[in-house]
Amino acid sequence: MDGLKALLTKDPEKQRYFLEHMDTMNTERKKIQESMIQETDEKIDHENELLRVASEDFHEGIVGIVAGRIAEKHNKPALIMSINTKE
Fold first, then answer.
1. pTM of the model
2. Mean pLDDT in runs of 10 for the chain (87 residues)?
């Protein structure tokens, strides 16, 4: 929504606020992503044909990106899952 708001506002200060907020969120996502990639790479069994790991700590919005990076790094399919214990 911040991107849309930044595009629609005519107030330069509000636009700057929305863009800075988006940048902060993106930086945080990158940190979470790198942490998940490192943790995943440590947990997976690299000998398996399908690289797979699941954790309650994994962010459900980032598991797909992490799976893609792990698959690309090891040239094998990867399945990374977030376990939801709240339901």
1. 0.76
2. 90 92 93 93 92 91 94 95 85
* Per-residue tokens: 41: 């790479």
How far CA 47 is from CA of 35, 38, 43, 68, 74, in Å, comes to: 22, 17, 12, 18, 10
Provide the number of structural domains found in the chain.
1
Whole-number Å distance between alpha carbons of 8 and 1: 11
Whether 87 is covered by a domain: the verdict is no
Structural domain boundaries enclosing 55: 2-82
Q: Which CATH number belongs to the domain containing residue 27 in this structure? A: 3.10.310.30
Task: Kindly give, in sequence order, each residue whose CB lies less than 8 Å from that of residue 79, ignoring residues fewer than 6 positions away.
Answer: 50, 51, 52, 53, 67
